[in-house]
Amino acid sequence: MASQQFEPPSGTRDFLATDLYQRERVFEAARSVFTRYGFEPLQTPAFERLETLTGKYGDEGDKLIFKILKRGAHEASGEADMALRYDLTVPLARVVAAHGSRLPTPYKRYAIGPVWRADRPGKGRFREFTQCDIDIVGSSSPLVEAEVVCAGADALDAMGVRDFTILVNSRRALSGLMQVYGVAADRAAGALITLDKLDKQEPASVVAELVEARGLDRGIAGELVRDVTADDAVERMRAALKDNADGREGLAEVDRLLELAGPHVGAARIRFAPNLVRGLDYYTGAIWEVVSPGMPGSIASGGRYDHLIRTLGGPDVTACGFSIGVERIIGALGDADDGTDRIDIAVTIMNDDYATDALGFAQGFRRAGWRAEVFLGTSKKLGKQLKWAADRRARFALLQGDSEHAEEAVTIRNMETGDQQRVPVTDLFTALDSELRM
């Protein structure tokens, strides 16, 4: 128990410097791509009004919302009025509803920030994690889907993910499929939520849930699952939907996205997947998930959601987004050493009387853009200070003992080779600048 009290809450993590440097590299790679595509940043609060979030994620998603109890005089009621944001999409919809007249049309935004879900923690699954989203609001053009998919694929490439596949489907096609199989309209949404589990559960388990929890006939449930998971599922779905209006429109959305985005993301990287569902209720058109060998579950997802903003009291404007699961990507990339966590210059202090000079050396190099640190310990032993410089992975150490000070000089030590040279203080920055730029 003594050690457990210092552990972060289950499903959360502490990030030390090396972790943060790597995370920021990944975030910056995404920002760079999104900016090139014309997306602009948006930041929203970490928590929202409870009514803003509930009813947007389906029954199962609503159960995972972290609620915040009322405060002050209402604390004893045990009721909640706020909640930590579940994703970055609903807050975007609220912003558009509130500030739509001040936003460009279409509005292209990116957001990178933490979200919270009261989920069961597991490998690659956290209660607090960062999402990386892009969205386009206000255009019904099929170019929107292609734009966000291409931007998302380029961002994955920039992050270091090379081997991935974008699986595409359409909620309209799935709605048509429910009609073809005779699933009642009031049961269709629940049936799709269950079908969304096909990537995590055995088909037999999904069939059982469709029957026991969703009320489908066992024969229909079995045929439905078999058809969307068969090797020739694409042909089966196209044949099933040939006479269904919603289904044909959905297939057209899929085909248009493959036609527009395929040549740019790579035809081998994007394909139609009839068993892809996406369990969130707010999707209305084309949907997608991205999978990569060696990475658990999907590493990105998204789709078109055309009426979410209206449900928040805003205008009924179209929207489409792409969300990257950066946590899974960072975890799978492993450690990356690009020298970000090392310093350029370690300044030793061999005598307290020379501290002013030491600080001056450090400040001079900092103003020139180099990373410099001064030894802050109390030991005056050279060995201990050089060990500190090595631990900080310094490229060079500056030494000024009595003899150097008397000569108004400094000894520069190359921490990798051990080579040393003594230079006049007046030549220090010139002598070391060229070395630092190598």
Which descriptors would you attach to this protein?
about 450 residues; alpha+beta; 8-stranded mixed beta sheet; elongated
Your description of this structure?
The chain is α+β, with helices and mostly antiparallel strands. Helices cover 41% and strands 19% of the residues. The protein has 17 helices and 16 strands. It has helices at 17-36, 50-53, 58-62, 89-99, 143-159, 171-180, 185-195, 203-212, 218-229, 233-240, 245-265, 308-311, 326-333, 355-367, 382-391, 402-406, 428-436, and strands at 40-41, 47-49, 67-69, 80-84, 107-116, 128-137, 165-170, 270-272, 286-291, 298-304, 319-324, 345-347, 372-374, 396-399, 409-414, 420-424. The strands form three sheets. It has an eight-stranded mixed beta sheet. Helix 1 packs antiparallel against helix 5, helix 5 crosses helix 11 (245-265) and helix 6 (171-180) crosses helix 7 (185-195). It is elongated. It starts with 16 loop residues before the first helix and ends with a helix. The mean pLDDT is 91.
Are there runs of 5+ residues with pLDDT below 50, and where? none
Strand content: 15-25%
Largest sheet: 8 strands, mixed
Radius of gyration: 28 Å
Total of DSSP H or I helical runs spanning 4+ residues: 17
What is the secondary structure topology, with strand pairs?
Layout: H1 17-36, E1 40-41, E2 47-49, H2 50-53, H3 58-62, E3 67-69, E4 80-84, H4 89-99, E5 107-116, E6 128-137, H5 143-159, E7 165-170, H6 171-180, H7 185-195, H8 203-212, H9 218-229, H10 233-240, H11 245-265, E8 270-272, E9 286-291, E10 298-304, H12 308-311, E11 319-324, H13 326-333, E12 345-347, H14 355-367, E13 372-374, H15 382-391, E14 396-399, H16 402-406, E15 409-414, E16 420-424, H17 428-436
Parallel strand pairs: 1-5, 7-8, 12-13, 12-14
Antiparallel strand pairs: 2-4, 3-4, 5-6, 6-11, 7-9, 9-10, 10-11, 14-15, 15-16
